[in-house]
């Protein structure tokens, strides 16, 4: 059964963050807050954890379109081909924020994603997500926790999330109520911004 951990977004407790990191490094799955909906994440370098998430989501790992959660743009070159100045300016303007940017992947992608031509990059404006990724020293792979309820789509209450997910993951972080609108997805893989999904992030900045 999962552990339910309260972390305050104003001042994430390093001791609690360390606990989350230990679980991630052992291949555990964590549900955590972002600046949009709550996410389900694992260490990008842990194959077993990636396979676990794929099983939960009922998809093949090589078909998964998950986001890479980064602390800032400094890790970008680890997974993304060199991008031009206009593209970088767009990223700089929008991040951290409620956007997922689809960018061309490079040859350093983890082996599970080698066949992918593009990757989704997220830099959430959320201190808990940022603290986790910084302490882990590499991105976490993330997918949103959709609800079967068509009207709700996303559960915002961490206690209800815990009730539903406690037997599937290792930690559920209570970082306060989440949002029920997913990130705006912008495809920048061909240079010009293309809106794939309109979500929380306004599109008039592009």
Q: Could you characterize what this model shows?
A:
The protein starts with a strand and ends in a 9-residue tail after the last strand. It is globular and about 45 Å long. A ten-stranded mixed beta sheet has the order 1-8-2-3-7-4-6-5-9-10, with helices on both faces. α1 packs across α5. 27% of the residues lie in helices and 21% in strands. It has one domain: DHBP synthase. It has 206 residues and is α/β, with parallel strands linked by helices. It has helices at residues 14-25, 47-57, 76-79, 85-94, 127-136, 158-165, and strands at residues 3-6, 30-32, 39-43, 67-69, 99-104, 118-122, 140-144, 171-174, 184-187, 194-197. Pfam families: Sua5_yciO_yrdC (PF01300). InterPro entries: DHBP_synth_RibB-like_a/b_dom (IPR017945), Sua5-like_dom (IPR006070), SUA5_domain (IPR052532).
- Tally of helical segments: 6
Alpha-carbon distance between the two ends: 44 Å
Can you tell me the CATH architecture?
Alpha-Beta Complex
What's the story with the biggest beta sheet?
10 strands, mixed
What is the C-level CATH assignment? Alpha Beta
Q: Within the CATH hierarchy, at the fold level, what is the topology?
A: DHBP synthase
Low-confidence stretches: none
- Beta-strand share of residues: 15-25%
Oligomeric assembly? single chain
The secondary structure category is alpha/beta
User: What is the CA-based Rg, rounded?
Assistant: 16 Å
What is the string of SSEs from the N terminus onward? EHEEHEHHEEHEHEEE
GO molecular function: double-stranded RNA binding
Domain YrdC-like: 14-201
Organism: Cellulophaga baltica
Pfam family, one: Sua5_yciO_yrdC
